[in-house]
Design brief:
With 564 residues, this protein is of the alpha+beta class. It has 15 helices and 27 strands.
Length: 564
């Protein structure tokens, strides 16, 4: 089935081309919106891996990608951009260092050349005495040798000595220059390595900061949009617990959305921002979108934003889905995004996570609004589930809370259900439910949509609808065509075929095939006669006896007056 939302088409179910799993998928070559930016997954494959996918013009079922693979593709694309940014910074820094090193070495070479030229000039005007620092003959020895030799030989030797002295000095200076250059190169390499490490650390810190800053900006803008809309219109913010509605301001419980909306009108919307909790999407009923600042009648959220901006000068950021939008009704609830219908709010909210849930399971692609709910879901994929055995019996439970409730009720005989409005602790959920109605006057009345019957719990209403209106009779007798809603009624019925009378009176020994027959009979042994005739003051222990009395003694009267 293909559905559309504001972010792009969704195929459910679909076969992912990247992992081969059958999940909820998106189209590879269609533009989607993510974090306020547009993305096409086939283009990401080309940019990241240089991979041109085939058959992108085929049917939609042949060009799908699941949410898990989309997440991995985004991570790969982000990693590629990070590497390119690091390489670019590294190249820029290395070019700067090389330029500085070349200028330093050029200055050193020019200085060395000047020194060599000065040394040669000094040697040209020298008297032939060599000041040797390398262990050669001393000055006196050289003079003695030169004086003892002939004049021609002496001049030749002086020239040779001068040439050898220049060569030795040049070799020493070349050695010194090469050592200094090697030292400079080592220092430059060490500096480049240090700079590379610093750039990596800066990149690792800078990237999450940029992402966090983008998220913070988006969250701030979403918050400001929500506050402006709530303060300037008649939308109704609310909280929920399963299918019960709570007032956003005072936590008053309602089951009728209309009563919730009327109650919320008594609160000042200017205080809305004081009750908003961070990191939680606000639930807002948009059944009425009219402007609070003027008599303008509004029919859509987009028109409301445009009206507040153009008419009243309010700042509305160009965002969508700042909060979860609902149109609350008494019975059938409809998704504002895709139009799907649900009987209970809890099921609708679970469905809304498929549109706006940002916490996605990597295994099956399920969506959730909160990280803790995703973690609980992921435990269902684990092969070995955690178990919590009872210390007093052999029962094993899936959670510590279930084990605690079992031990408190069964073994310790202690109440475990705390009332949220007082210090009373009760033994069961149903007793706490009844306590909230009787003691705290919670309005919990559920009216049947098909008849006038009302119930104080949603479960009772559901049972009534399934039994009397939908006729959900799953338990059929094997010997006749009769069907029953619950198996206990089928078991009682089977006694009419077998002739068994398993329900026996402990006072007189009479037996009955059904428990209801025994209960009626037990009233005959009671001294209390609660069925009284309205005409002659006769009283009876059973209603059937009263009816028989009316038929015999007061013929022609309406028997409906004497029903219990």
């Amino acid at each position: 089935m293909s559905t559309n939302n504001r972010k792009g088409p969704i195929i459910d179910p679909g076969l992912c081309r990247c992992c081969g799993a059958t999940k909820k998928c998106r189209l590879l070559n269609v533009e989607y919106e993510w974090l306020g930016q547009k993305e096409v997954y086939s283009d990401l494959f080309v940019d990241t891996f240089g991979l041109m996918l085939s058959h992108l013009d085929a049917d939609p079922e042949d060009r799908l990608i699941c949410a898990t693979c989309v997440t991995r593709l985004r991570d790969a694309s982000a990693f590629r951009r990070q590497v390119l940014q690091c390489e670019e910074k590294l190249l820029q820094d290395s070019i700067t260092l090389d330029t500085a090193g070349e200028s330093d070495s050029k200055i050193k070479r020019e200085t060395d050349l000047k020194e060599e030229i000065n040394d040669r000039d000094d040697d040209r005007y020298d008297d032939g005495i060599a000041h040797d620092d390398d262990g050669n003959d001393s000055d006196d020895t050289v003079l003695a040798k030169i004086k003892s030799e002939p004049r021609v030989t002496r001049s030749k030797k002086v020239k040779k000595e001068k040439k050898s002295k220049v060569k030795r000095k040049m070799k020493v200076k070349v050695k010194k220059a090469s050592k200094e250059e090697m030292k400079d190169r080592k220092e430059m390499l060490a500096a480049m390595q240090m700079m590379e490490k610093k750039l990596k650390r800066m990149q690792e810190i800078e990237q999450p900061i940029k992402i966090r800053q983008r998220y913070q900006d988006s969250e701030h803008q979403s918050f400001q949009n929500t506050v402006t809309i709530v303060e300037s219109s008649f939308v109704c913010p609310f909280d929920t617990s399963f299918s019960d509605y709570f007032c956003f301001y005072c936590r008053e419980v309602y089951t009728d959305p209309e009563k919730l909306r009327l109650h919320t009108m008594t609160h000042d919307p200017k205080t809305f921002k004081d009750y908003v909790t961070n990191k939680k999407m606000v639930q807002i009923d948009i059944d009425r979108l009219d402007c609070r600042l003027c008599p303008e009648m509004i029919t859509s959220l987009d028109y409301l934003k445009e009206h507040l901006t153009n008419t009243h000068g309010k700042t509305i950021y160009p965002l969508s889905n700042e909060f979860l939008k609902f149109k609350l009704t008494t019975h059938n609830l409809t998704c504002t995004e895709c139009g799907a219908s649900f009987s209970f709010f809890h099921a609708l909210k679970k469905h809304m996570a498929e549109h706006f849930g940002t916490c996605i399971c990597d295994i099956c692609g399920a969506h959730y609004f909160e990280e803790r709910m995703l973690l609980l879901h992921q435990k269902t994929h684990q092969r070995i589930e955690e178990s919590y055995p009872c210390s007093s019996c052999e029962k094993v439970f899936k959670s510590k809370h279930s084990r605690y409730l079992h031990e408190a009720r069964t073994h310790k005989k202690e109440p475990a259900y705390q009332c949220p409005k007082c210090d009373e602790v009760l033994f069961s959920y149903s007793l706490r439910y009844r306590h909230m109605i009787e003691v705290h006057n919670e309005q919990r009345m559920f009216t049947c949509a098909h008849c006038e019957r009302t119930y104080d719990s949603r479960k009772s209403l559901r049972e009534h609808t399934r039994r009397y209106h939908l006729k959900v009779f799953k338990h059929q007798c094997d010997l006749c065509d009769k069907r029953f809603y619950i198996p206990s009624r089928l078991k009682e019925h089977m006694a009419t075929h077998t002739g068994e009378r398993n329900f026996r009176c402990e006072f007189c020994g009479k037996s009955y095939p059904r428990m209801r027959g025994l209960k009626v009979h037990m009233q005959s042994h009671s001294s209390e006669k609660k069925f009284r005739c309205m005409l002659c003051n006769a009283s009876f222990t059973q209603n059937v006896n009263l009816k028989n009395h009316v038929k015999r003694q007061h013929q022609g009267l309406d028997l409906e007056e004497y029903h219990e």
